Amino acid sequence: MNEYGLKYGCNPNQKEARIYMEGGADLPIKVINGRAGYINLLDAFNGWQLVKEMKKATGLPSATSFKHVSPAGAAVGTTLSDVERKIYWVDDMDMEFTPLANAYARARGADRMSSFGDFISLSDVCDAATAKIIKREVSDGVIAPGYEPEALEILKEKKKGNYCLIEIDPEYEPKKQERKEVFGVVFEQDRNELVIDDDFFANIVTANKNMPESAKRDLAISMITLKYTQSNSVCYVKDGQAIGIGAGQQSRIHCTRLAGSKADNWWLRQAPQVLNLPFKENIGRADRDNSIDLYIGEDYMDVLADGAWENIFTKKPDVFTREEKKEWLAKNTGVSLGSDAFFPFGDNIERAHRSGVCYVAEPGGSIRDDNVIATCDKYDMVMAFTGLRLFHH
C-alpha cells in the first residue's frame, strides 16, 4: 500500500489528510485495526524510532508512551519492584510480567497524568501480558513489529473494536534525507542518525570521573529519549526509565524545573503517606492519579478543609507536610540527567541536585561551561560533555 487516508489532519477542520510514499514505494506500516490519525502517526513514527534505538543501545525490550509528538515516558524492561507495581496500578494483576510488559508499565507509570490517552510504541512483538496492561489504560493505539494472536484479540476489544493497532516493518530504513513543508516552503535536511552508545559519555569534565555502567545506560536512555522530544528538553532517568521529561520549553531552566518536578512526583508517589492513602473501592486509576497529584501538591490543605476528600477516601488522610516531603525527596539519589543542548548557567545543576541527580550529560560549549562544571563539582556529580546537540522539531 502506497497511501493511507486519514480522518483529518491535526484538527477536524483540516479535512484532507493522508500519508504516502513518494516514488510508488509501499508504506512501512499496516493499520491492522481501527483507524490511525495524523497526530497518532506522528507519535507512532517518533516513538518507534525511540524504542528501536533504545533496544539497540541497551539490549532490553523497550517501550515509550507518546503524547503530542513528545514522550511522556520511556523505559526498558527491567523487573518491577513491589512498590513500582503498586504506584503503576499493576499490583493486582495475577500474571507473569514479561520484560516488554515491565517496560510498558514503567513507561506509562512514570508520569501517568501526561500518559493519559497516549500512543504506545513497543520495540518487540506485543505479547499477551503487555496487551493486558494496555487494555486497562486510556490510550489511542499501539505501534509494534507484530502482535501475538492472544494480544491481538485482547487489544481489538478496546474502543468497541476501533482501537488503533499498527504493525511496522522492523527492517524498514528511511532515506538519508528528510523533508517537510511549512507555509508552502520545503525544508530538507540529513536525518539525525547519531548513534548513542558508551563512547558518547567518554569526555568526563568533572573532578569525579566515576561513572558506573548503570549510569551510562541511564544516560543513553535519557539522550535517546531527548532525540525524539520537542526541544528545548531535558530528561531525568533512574533505573532504566525516564522519571521526568521537560519538553518544548523556551528556557533551559524551565525544562529542568518542569522535568525535575515530574521526577519529584514520581518519587513522592513511593512515600508511605501516598502508598497508604485510603481510597474508596470505586475510585478508578485515573481519578486516583489525579488525587495523588493533588495530595502531594502545595494546595492540598484547601481540599482537606472543604471536605472534598469525602468523595475519594474512606477517611480523611493526614496532611503530607512540606517538611515530610523534603525529607523523603532527600532520599532519592543516583539519578541521571541529559540535556539536548548546553546548560548556560549553573542554576540548572542546582535544580537537578534537588531531585537526586548524580550523573549529567550535555553537549557543552557554553561560555559559562566553567561555572556549570564548578557547580557539578560542588555536589561531587559526574558530568560528560557529548559535544553534540540533539534538537528535535
Keywords summarizing the entry:
393 residues, alpha/beta, Cytidine Deaminase, domain 2, 3 domains, 6-stranded mixed sheet, 5-stranded mixed sheet, 15 strands
**What is the count of DSSP helices, taking H or I runs of 4+ residues?**
14
Cα-atom radius of gyration:
21 Å
Shape type? globular
Q: Report the mean per-residue pLDDT as an integer.
A: 94
Question: What is the share of helical residues?
Answer: 25-40%
pLDDT below 50 for ≥5 consecutive residues: which ranges? none
Euclidean distance between termini CA atoms: 28 Å
Look at the structure and give the CATH class of the largest domain.
Answer: Alpha Beta
Main beta sheet, described? 6 strands, mixed
CATH superfamily of the largest domain: AICAR transformylase, duplication domain
Structure description:
Helix content is 35%, strand content 20%. The protein is α/β, with parallel strands linked by helices and 393 residues long. The chain folds into 3 domains: 3-168, 3-Layer(aba) Sandwich (Cytidine Deaminase, domain 2), CATH 3.40.140.20; 191-268 and 329-385, AICAR transformylase, duplication domain (Cytidine Deaminase, domain 2, 3-Layer(aba) Sandwich); 286-319, no CATH class. It has a 6-stranded mixed sheet with strand order 3-8-7-6-4-5. Helix 1 packs antiparallel against helix 7 (213-227). The longest helix has 21 residues, at 38-58. It starts with a strand and ends in an 8-residue tail after the last strand. The model has no long low-confidence stretch (mean pLDDT 94).
